[in-house]
Amino acid sequence: MTSNDETSKETPNLQDVSRRKFLNTAALVGLAGAGLSVGLTSCKNEEKSAALTGAGKTGGSTASASSAVTYGEFEVPPGQLDEYYEFSSGGHSGEVRVYALPSGRTLKRIPVFNIDCESGWGITNESKAIMGTHPDGSPKYKTGDTHHVHGSYTDGTYNGKYLFVNDKIHGRMARIRLDYMVCDKIVEIPNVQGTHGIFPDKRDPVDPKINYTTRVFLGQEFHIPQPNDGRDENDPKKYYCMLTCVGSESMDVLWQCKIDGNLDLIATSYDGTLAASNQYNTENGVTYEEMMAAERDACVFFNIARIEAAVKAGKYFTIGTSKVPVVDGTKAANPDPKTSLTCYVPVPKNPHGVNATPDGKYFICAGKLSPTATVIDLALVHKWFDGGFKDPRDTVVAEPEIGLGPLHTGFDGRGNAYTTLFLDSQIVKWDIEKSIAQFKGNSKVDPILDRIDVHYQPGHGFTSMGETKDVDGKFFISDNKFTKDRFLPVGPRHPDSGQLIDIRGDKMRLIADHSTHPEPHDAIIVKRDLIRTKQINDLNEHPLAVKDAKDCRVVRSGKKVTVHLTSQAPAFGLREFTIKQGDDVTIILTNLDKVEDLTHGFAIPKYDINFVVNPQQTKSVSFKADKPGVYWVYCTNFCHALHLEMRSRMLVEKA
Ligand code: RUQ
Ligand code: CUA
Ligand code: CA
């Protein structure tokens, strides 16, 4: 039976759980038992009861039938503005996306690590300078893999200045300035591979003159030889991973900290003293069997002040040609908690995700291959660092069984946690203080408050303002990896989805399925009044701006030719311009239109040039005039009744 057949037989209905498809029982039993199954992608239909038996074994329970949503409640009528921005990573598309919530409207795609011919990202000289180039001027990398988007903070909440996003493939981090919603810096991290989790400081700035986040921390997921230059290739015992610290304003790599095992997601404490990361490969395995050999891995805490003091005191080394100071945070190098740079808290098993509760008290690590979430008390982590006790495991204050495949946790500010269950295809709502009481031995307490089915296999889940002290407990989004029968079929490559859930009441309620282009990896939901954008560029921000149509001209110096050009609807400043075959040409284009939203495009056929200039913006492109002939340079962005007539002729004279 094809999915087409299934879909056509059934009436879509948000509340109809009978359409849910479950993983086969083998996957559930395997994970619940020996923990040896990786058959996570099976789409074999199984009875719901069979699947829930598997879940029940590990503390799961049936999702409650949530009360229906009245759709008018959440409608954002035409012309009205949404309450929130959602900033989402675009996964292996390499971009960042901007949505409006609760409507789910798509507002913008911000190209970051990807080439984008709509905006000209990776095509214009300005964007290539940010992305990095080969000596011939071509982009250094054409691919990216964004996972985690976080905003810059002041006093524990978003200040609306920046977004930071990782690139897992090439070990980079990008910064997006939120006033223009464009990427303005990319840094490539030395000595790492697989830069996965990132998180900025939430602390109050040290320097009162600085009203932005001061540091961003990045976790390395893949361990490698150091330097990775061909040495120790087949000696995995010598591979290792590092935490990297980047200055958020300079975007310089400030230091790195070598660790045992690997790093994954990152969270920072609200007091600015600690960063933490879950570790799923404390085994230093190179195959998945090896990586899941141990019953416990860890959540590692970094004592930032001690690391920075060690760097200042010169207690560091460097690797290869990199000048970045590296401190040693391994257990062997840190035998005494009172001086230790790191605290490795044992957590079961291949944990995924670490999230800080908005009251600043706890870090929660989801178990992934264990049906548990581990609650770590930050006060106890500090006590451990002060030498108060020896066993880091004593920082754990709860470990409730919440369901199968727990990955990420969001918060509502009312003491509840919402964890995505990848294998159960559910969100589970649980009470943190009750889980602590249960852990202390009060067997009568059940921390589980509610479950809701999602469709299907959720990865990240996050709440409105949930990573800030201003968490408002209104919405939760479940970003789902599989959609199978949820949308009209579009061939083998399925859309992904973000499901919007109302969390204001006792019971969670599913509001909407927002389909998304793969892969909406992780996101934050930010109140709209925290974001203040500029709607028009400043003519003076580009040093080469052509400020008057009368300044349009072709300037030649030997083979170097510069074309100064303007756009103003419905014409370019030069109706034609002539260059010679073999010239090295740079075209500088300023859009002199001042009207909001009046963007022009600029395309040259066969020369592979296509970009836009927004009102008062200047961009440039450089190319070799290697093809003689007539080329109609044209505007690609519908701007005027005479948009189609908005052209110029580029005449390339034969050499
Ligand atoms: S990790 S689905 Cu790249 Cu964000 Cu958990
Ligand atoms: Cu200018 Cu279309
Ligand atoms: Ca492991």
Report the CATH topology name of the domain at 204-393: Methylamine Dehydrogenase, Chain H
Strand ordering within the main sheet: 8-9-10-11-15
Rg, rounded, reads: 27 Å
Q: For this structure, what is the CATH class of the domain at 204-393?
A: Mainly Beta
Task: Report the helical percentage.
Answer: under 10%
What can you tell me about this protein's structure?
With 655 residues, this protein is mostly beta strands. Among the domains are: 204-393, YVTN repeat-like/Quinoprotein amine dehydrogenase (Methylamine Dehydrogenase, Chain H), CATH 2.130.10; 539-653, Cupredoxins -  blue copper proteins (Immunoglobulin-like, Sandwich). It has eight helices and 39 strands. A five-stranded mixed beta sheet has the order 8-9-10-11-15, covered by helices on one side. Strands 30, 31, 32, 34 and 37 form a five-stranded mixed beta sheet that branches. The protein has a four-stranded antiparallel beta sheet with strand order 3-2-1-29, with no helix packed on it. The chain is globular, with a radius of gyration of 27 Å. The chain starts with a helix and ends with a strand. Dinuclear copper ion is lined by residues 569, 600, 635, 637-640, 643, 646.
